[in-house]
Design goal:
The protein has about 550 residues and is α/β, with parallel strands linked by helices. The protein is about 40% helix and about 20% strand. The protein has 21 helices and 15 strands. The strands form 2 sheets. It has a 9-stranded mixed β-sheet, sandwiched between helices.
Amino acid sequence: MSPLPVFLLSRADGLLYVYTSQPPSPAFAQKFKEEASCRNSFNEKILWLRNHAEDTSDNSESRLFERECAIPLSGDLTEEDATEALDNSIQDVIKHALIMPASGMMPEEIHNPINTTPLELIEYQKALRSEVVGELDKHFGISDHELRSRVESKIDDAMQRTPPPKIKGHNSEVEVKKFLIDEILGLGPLEDFMRDEDVDEIMVNGPDRIFVEKSGRLMLTDRKFSNSDHVRTVIERILMPVGRTVNERTPYVDARLQDGSRVHAIIPPLALTGPMITIRKFSKVPISMEDLVYRFKSISPAAAEFLKLCVHLKKNIIVSGGASSGKTTLLNVLSNFILPSERVICIEDSAELKLTQVNLGRLEARQQGTEAKNQVTIRDLVRNALRMRPDRIIVGECRGPEAIDMLQAMNTGHDGSLTTLHANTPRDALARLETMVLMAGVDLPLRAIREQIASSVNFVVQNGRLADGSRRLLELVEVTGIEDNVIKTQTIFKFEKKWIGEDGHVVGELLPTGALPEFIRSIPGSFLEQHAHLFKVKSPTAKNEEAAR
């Protein structure tokens, strides 16, 4: 047979594009298999794959995957061999898709690899751990660096005295050393998940069930703790550096790790399944607005530019959303637009924001310990912050009576303040503010509270987590005043869902509604002219030109 022309093979990598870019699922595998079976010749399959790749995406990241995963075909390959190679690759795609989780599946249905560590090696690791820990108990008051050095030295000495078993397919020395370092210095079975940058959240439901959220999908893992005491040991290791404890008198606690990850722990008798840990990880590299727009596609370019404008003009903004909807991430991003010359006081229940301001004061609440008098609340800190000459106040999250102090700060010269709260819609967020003000025990009529909210809050930004695990800005609402005892709002941007793919991926777009923010109308000069394009509103000049025609 004559060799196939090179150009016919040059886009065979389209197959591997589908492999890497489409979120796989059994539904995707079945559709892909049916479409492949309709193409009989090599040329037909190549054209189909090329069209599939060109129709599904044009972003540079996907093209990079195409080049890296190109099928190894060359111009001197016969048509028979090329067809066989292509068919094998198609079957690989189908096989891969069938074992991957589709969005929306329950964690119990997700395929997970079984822990393949041989029992003999597990027993050896446990015995060596007891020996090394027993040696380390003699050393106190040493630095972390020195402790790590001693741990590694003790492990090496112990393995020399009692070499690990030689097991085919396993590098026993490396596996044992990693296991022991993770157990003695790290978080044990959680340490691999802490290192995995694709894991956003880790959930421990007792010693036997560890879940992770990875790339927006919830997964049940094969990792386990030895017993409940093992979980308690890890909790204590987390809390020790931040000076917090958990016991029967205070059976739950919030804390943070050195990398900024947020931790919540709760123990029996409140936790019926055994000690529970929830770790919310944050990106080590700060996320920028460009990342939200172009990398995660969480927000449109127009909405991003508008939010940047709102921060520059010192508008008071509330970021609302459900759990794990990206509120803290967006708050971090918005804070990047605060001018370096401004003094910012940041108040949090458990420090997790990564602010970069030069003139920055950070305050952290103190939870109630064994004595109630030791507790310092968010409300206490907001009141103290007002005496620190802040230009802006950032409260990590409003949950209770501190809302009244936050509103008063927004309304008394601290414009441009930011906070988050849990709510499902912008209207719900405003209603929650009312409830939280009432929790402060203030003797004010409801109308006075609503007037305070309407005069203090300028914008509510609603974040949401969609069915496919992606986090999106769903709605951006301006608070315009109060009328007939009802807070008036207008929606400036709103997410429009178009369809849900067979793989569960939600396709939609954050679009302007055409409403023009009231504060822009009041700014004199050419300001409206310069920013009208953000709202799909024709500028005054364009309207005049149209009228002249």
